[in-house]
Write a structure and sequence with these properties.
Order of helices and strands: HEEEEEEEEEEHHH
Strand content: 15-25%
Number of helices: 4
Radius of gyration: 30 Å
Structural class: alpha+beta
Distance between the termini: 89 Å
């Protein structure tokens, strides 16, 4: 074997060792929850024709207890009960299924009472039975994996299972809080739109005042400008009115929840 061939073989062998080292090192890194899309509070998940919004979550490490609460909006919420599976994974990649308890059909409270200690990553999958509008046949829809970790859940030493009546009170309070957030957001939007229209009105007065000193093409151009600004002003007024209608509807819904307590 020539020196050149020996040199080439040495380079190849070195590269093989480097690749092998990288692969084996990566395999020993284990499972890292930060590499997964961990669900955040108020995130929404669509499963079939049902929408789930995460409104609360927590982890009690001392009691090995995990709880996640979703508001479930579904035309058949009172009839169909979803199936939810939970799996936990350790840092080394070992998986362990867990028993899930559900409280109510509309306000989904997921309770896992035997969480593996020091778990790295958790995953829940929701199976929803929905009805096809055309054939009226039931169809099973399954969510993508919904991932969480002890860190993303937030450790809560006082977290424990509550009574069904308490969860229902929480359901009402949570819905009222979410409606308050929607009303506040729309109110802030309307405040900005009203401020914009005040400036637009001032601008229209300036254009109208300028118009009386113009003739010919210049006058025509400024009339077109006035018409454009006026159209924009009216569109903003319509948007403010629509937002107000939406706020009024949310307020009525909020009062309905409050009166049901």
């Amino acid at each position: 074997m020539s020196k050149q061939q020996k040199r080439f073989l040495g380079i190849v062998s070195g590269l093989v060792l480097i690749i092998f080292f990288c692969l084996t090192t990566k395999s020993f890194q284990g499972v890292n929850a930060d590499g997964y899309p961990l669900i955040k509070k108020y995130s929404s998940i669509q499963v079939g024709n049902a929408n789930y919004q995460l409104v609360n979550q927590g982890y009690n490490a001392k009691k090995n207890y995990v709880e996640m609460s979703f508001i479930r909006n579904n035309d058949y919420a009172e009839v169909n009960r979803p199936e939810i599976k939970a799996t936990f994974m350790t840092h080394t990649g070992q998986t362990q299924p867990a028993t899930v308890q559900l409280i109510t059909n509309e306000f989904i409270v997921i309770q896992v009472k035997a969480v593996p200690k020091n778990f790295e990553l958790g995953k829940i999958v929701i199976n929803e039975k929905t009805q096809d509008m055309a054939s009226h046949k039931y169809v099973h829809s399954e969510s993508e994996g919904i991932y969480f970790s002890a860190k993303s859940l937030g450790e809560k030493d006082a977290l424990k299972p509550l009574s069904r009546s308490q969860y229902m009170r929480d359901n009402i309070q949570t819905r009222v809080t979410l409606l308050d957030q929607k009303i506040k957001k729309l109110d802030q939007v309307n405040t900005k739109l009203e401020e914009t229209n005040k400036k637009t009105q001032t601008y229209l007065k300036e254009l109208t005042g300028e118009k009386q000193y113009l003739v010919g093409t210049d006058k025509e151009n400024i009339e077109d400008k006035i018409q454009s600004v006026q159209t924009e002003y009216e569109a903003t007024v319509a948007e403010i009115q629509e937002n107000q209608k939406e706020m009024d509807a949310y307020q009525m819904q909020k009062e309905k929840y409050q009166n049901s307590k």
